[in-house]
Design goal:
Blueprint lengths: L7 E5 L7 H12 L3 E7 L14 E2 L2 E2 L1 E6 L2 E9 L3 H8 L10 E8 L11 H11 L3 E8 L10 H17 L5 E7 L10 E2 L8 E10 L2 E10 L9 H6 L4 E5 L13 H6 L1
Parallel strand pairs: 1-2, 1-7, 2-6, 7-8, 8-9, 10-13
Antiparallel strand pairs: 3-4, 5-6, 9-13, 11-12
Helix pairs in contact: 1-4, 2-3
GO molecular function: 5'-nucleotidase activity; metal ion binding
Pfam families: SurE
Enzyme class: hydrolase
Length: 266
């Protein structure tokens, strides 16, 4: 990773500044030779996607300096804003120098399928691409019942090879890495994966009425059945770390060309 020694990495997440996954990723980036700065939401911001919402006082957003365990020399900030807001702030004058790459995670739970749209971890990496930076979202496939000690070290074991891929890719490239929550010795080989139709978890939302008024009550459950072969969901379930290149919002030309609307309507 000698080439990374001249590069600055912004480490963020959506689980909040106190997440052990954030500390693990910052440590891994430092050990890879990056000049590291950490900026993450002051509270859990899971599921916010690409939101740039922040807690504002007029035009001001509060930032709190923090010292991370075992990383006393790494600048760290708890920001009262969502992950994509933090990334955009870094590219709009806050950080000097600006980051060269944004590393987001390590998320508590996999980010799989087209449901990655809703992930704040993914949203931060995609926001990086809007500034021409490379972005990497790292997630650990922890089940709904979180284990006492997740295998953060397994994600870090895969990280160097993935950083090589990221740094060799064009500016603006965004990658999503999912790693099974298994000991390092039990990991399969790193595999490129396409997105599943949804993911590994789906929510059911019920309208509940009671003494406290009307509520929307959410239940999360892991999907049953065999996942589609070759997808990120299937490969992760088989013990493989998966790597997927993602694209930000783009346009598709030809809407009014040659009767496209008529064909789609039919």
């Amino acid at each position: 990773m000698a080439s990374s020694r001249r590069l600055r990495a912004l480490i963020t997440n959506d689980d909040g500044i106190d997440s052990p996954g954030l500390l693990a990723l910052a440590t891994g980036a430092r050990d890879a030779g990056f000049d590291v700065v950490v900026a993450a939401p002051h509270v859990d911001a899971s599921g916010v996607g690409g939101s740039v919402l922040a807690v504002r006082d007029g035009k001001r957003v509060r930032v709190h300096s923090r010292e991370l365990p075992d990383l006393p020399d790494v600048p760290a900030f708890a920001v009262e804003g969502h992950p994509a807001f933090i990334v955009h702030s870094a590219g709009r004058g806050w950080l000097d120098p600006e980051p060269d790459v944004v590393l987001s995670g390590i998320n508590i739970g996999a980010n799989l399928g087209h449901a990655v749209l809703h992930s704040g971890t993914i949203g931060a990496a995609l926001a990086a691409s809007l500034h021409g930076w490379r972005g990497l979202a790292v997630s650990l496939g922890i089940p709904l019942v979180e284990p006492e000690r997740p295998h953060w070290e397994s994600a870090l074991a895969v990280l160097p090879d993935v950083l090589d891929v990221l740094l060799a890719a064009p500016d603006g490239t965004v990658l999503s890495l999912n790693v099974p929550d298994l000991p390092v010795r039990e990991l399969g080989e790193l595999r490129e994966a396409r997105l599943a139709h949804w993911g590994s978890v789906r929510s059911r939302v019920d309208h509940v009425s009671g003494d406290d008024g009307d509520l929307l009550h959410t239940h999360e459950a892991e999907l049953t059945g065999d996942p589609e072969p070759g997808t990120d969901t299937a490969l992760l379930a088989a013990g493989h770390p998966t790597l997927t290149e993602l694209q930000s919002v783009t346009d598709r030309p030809g809407l009014l060309d040659g009767g496209t609307l008529s064909r789609r309507a039919s």
